[in-house]
Design a protein that fits this description.
Arc Repressor Mutant, subunit A; about 750 residues; alpha/beta; 4 domains; Rossmann fold; 30 helices; single chain; globular
Amino acid sequence: MTAFITGYPPASPRLLARFLPPLADGVAAHYIEQHTRLGDLVFDPFGQSPAVSVEALHVGRRILVANFNPISRLNLSLSVRPPAEADLRSALTALADVRKDELRLEDYLLGFYRTTCIRCGSQAIADSYEWDAESGELTEKTYACQPCGDFPQHGPADDADRALAKRFARSLDYYLLLDRVAARDDPDRVHAEEALSVYPPRTVAAIAAALVKLDQLDPSPEVRRLLCGLLVAALDATCALTQDRPKALTASRRYREHNFWRAMERGIGILAGVPTPSRSVLLPDLLAHADRLGIHAHTGPARDLASSLPAGCCALLISAIPRPNQAYWTLSALWAAWLWGRESTATLRSVLRRRRYDWAWHAAALRRAFASVLPALAPEGKVIGLVAEAEPGFNAGLLAAADGAGYSLAGAALRADTAEAQLVWGRATSPAPAYTGSLLETAVKDIARQAAAEVLLARGEPSRWMTLHFGAWRSLAERRLLAALPDDPLSLVNRWLEPVFRDPRSFQRLGAEKSGDPATGMWSLPENGETTPNLPLADRVEARVLQLLASGEPVDEHDLVQAAYSSFPGVHTPGRDLVLACLNSYAERVAHSLWRLRREDASTARAKELESIQAELRALAVRHGYTAAGANPLEWREDEQVVYLFAVITSAVFNRYVLGPQLAARKRFLVLPGGRAGLAAFKLRRDPRLRAAMFANHWVILKFRHVRRMADDTQLTRTTLEPAFYADPLEETKQLSLMSE
């Protein structure tokens, strides 16, 4: 099974990061090194993430990229050949010095944002304004005032701020920008108007002024490349879309209007890097010389580039798989037309018209792209799909597309908590099954049901719908059943599988209405006694983390997380938060990313402590008139009745006590180290079955430290004993309240 590769957080900000797949550093390099050799030819057919090309070059491979979006190609150019900060500042200064109405352009544009300090009354330049889109009111401002210390200040907008904003009502600047995208008689003009509406009027005026002066400057190709990059950074930052990965052109109810010139200045920090020589190579040269490392970026779709390639020349196809994003593609059409003219957007014209991208449309588009590049793949070559925002519809469309295009799924890993998937395909060596009609429907239902049940059985705990869905569709793809389906396999399979997952004899929903969205709540197998599930995944992850720490030597956090993922591959990849909760429970940080097992959590130390706590509990029982019986669980009895039951453990593995057969007792206590309390609470939050059983069976978590306090409390009486058990709550939360959530 394929282990999920975790990678590293990006070391620096990325241009257009909120629109592009959030690919971690090192993931592409891992797969490239695993499946290719030095000098091999690697092909990224979608060109969605510049990181793929950057890492391919870094590990010594030749790289082909196809992308018909000129904005994405600019991003690729700036990533593969990053400019020096000094060159970016020089380019921006050249633009700043162009005259506009007797002023330098910089001074002219900064004048759009003049304001007054609310503290001292001095003139200042606003960095941003807050607007309420529903009322159309300018409400707040952020600025830096030199007399007051030149630090960011926030305050209410005043009448002068509102009067200045009104000066920028729709003007000739608006029509200038509109004309750059579509002529007055162009049927796409109405769509360009909709796209332009995400920019506040003042920003529209600033964009128009900057573009006109860029044309007048007529810079060298390199300076123009840098200025276009800074403009794109500002165009992204100053539109009124929500900041959190927008998919559609919908302005926020409350949005922030940013100072356009300041946004260009901030772009320097995003684009600047360590300059490298140009590694752009013509296609014939890249194909002819295996020792000539470089990149060829094709300015059209992948199918056009693939048709120019020798059969089997690519050792690996790897790409961050694109997903529908109306906002990015529409804005790209706008920005490209503004920067390079209408002719540059010929391949993007259709995105201005398309209002909706559904998963069936996307699956068909992906299938065509996959089919077109298959001849370029070496006979034993692999295809790697890196999927961010891997929601069920996206996963299903991708799996159906690749299967239908002639690829065989060789491995798949899903990290459900961050919605990321990594898939590996090879050339299909066998045809799709020859099932049709009812036989095909029965096969799809049976295989999906069995695969989903096996996922839940193996995980041993309630799981997300995304995990269940991925396991079912992965199994259908592995058997090439998706390729056996007619057009629009998504709709057909979804229709067939709906009653399968609604059947209470096969699956249960916890914490959600049965008829509601399947993504709500958690899924589990019915408790019919026919099968015995594995130990819960969370408990096995805890044991594995402890094992990785057991030597007592410092362990790198990234290496530990990756080792945990390798132990639980495929659809069983644990959430990163679960691994880190286990790490925090047992280890202490000794350096930035190094952790070491805490001394008190060494096995010999905990064994001694367990014996000590059991002795304290026996002494407490005798002191308060109870009879102590049994070893572990320990019973406190009175009149032959079990009043209290204590299960003393050194881990947070308490599933067998809470869900297993219950011994008679009025109250039951799980007694564990205080360092395990956070992990125990984490497990209870993620497992509704465990949480409900804790409450129903009257289990309470008691910490070792509190047992010692009670043992030392000479004022404790039979009357105050039971309330004292609750005096050190789990994570500072009332235990009964937590259990009943």
